[in-house]
Amino acid sequence: MDFELDVHTHTIASGHAYGTLTEMAKEASLRGLKLLGITEHTHNMPGTCDDLYFVNLRVVPREMFGVRLMLGAELNIMDEHGTVDLPDWIIDKTDLRIASIHGNLFAPGTRERNTAAVLGAMKNPKIDMIGHPDDGNCPLDYEQLVLASKEFHTLLEINNNSLRSPSRKNVGENIRTILKLCMQYEVPVIMNSDAHIMTDLANTDHSMPIVEETGFPKELILNYSAEKFEAFIAKNRALEKAVSDKESGK
Q1: Half-sphere exposure of 160 (CA within 13 A, CB side)
Q2: Beta bridge partners of 37
Q3: 106: which strand partners?
Q4: Which of 20, 43, 125, 128 has the lowest tally of Cβ within 10 angstroms?
Q5: What is the distance between the alpha carbons of residues 3 and 145, in angstroms, rounded to a whole number?
């Protein structure tokens, strides 16, 4: 595999992961990655880091062991409006923003309500991607999400860790649906490990077979080019600024 990046990972700061930031960066270098995203859980997740963690990210070097670092947050989607659990002024201090539904924090309802929650997060110009939108316990309208991914420039994630989580339902089937719709509408995806320990970094042992099975085109997977991914995020920051300027009347 010639992936250049993995941008959904966790360190001990998240409370239920087992490597330090330095250990993760060193392992990323050993595995030949050019870019590593570390996206800690936000405060509503039990046992995770305080908001101050994200406020102070400025002190961390953005390159270690020859690997570029993007430091950010995996925010929790809290309601049917897509509200996330960090204020904007703290989100602004992060390099990378994932919004995810976690069953212990968002009680899944109807397919329409669940989809509205994710769409609400995707419409937020500060959000870069939707984490693990694949759990059958929280039914979603994937065609709406794929179209929104294209419209709002928000990536849908193919999450390796989801495929081996016994608490999630129909993950493989749902990932196949996402991939087929992304092929149909020519929408890129991001493949992440969601690693909670160094040895799982850049792991796609469960997700890549499904990608290959569906014939998903390499050019729609952003992991093959760190420069392409960084350009995607730079465009998001520009879109975010344009929305902010419009709202402030600039």
Answers
A1: 21
A2: 70
A3: none
A4: 20
A5: 25
How far apart, in whole angstroms, are the C-alpha atoms of residue 170 and residue 148? 22
pLDDT over 70 at 1, yes or no: no
The answer for residues whose C-beta is within 8 angstroms of residue 87's C-beta and 6 or more apart is none
Percentage with pLDDT > 70 across the chain? 100
Phi, psi of 142 (to 5 degrees): -70, -30
Q: With beta carbons less than 8 A apart as the criterion, state whether 130 and 154 touch.
A: yes
Rounded Cα distance, 149 and 182, in Å: 9
Paired strand residues for 1: none
Contacts of 63 (CB under 8 A, 6+ apart): 69
In sign, the C-alpha dihedral spanning 182, 234, 71, 29 is positive
Structure tokens that stand for 30 in this block? 């050993």
100 backbone dihedrals φ, ψ, rounded to 5°: -135, 150
How far apart (Å, rounded) are the C-alpha atoms in residues 72 and 50? 13
Which residue type occupies 48?
Answer: T
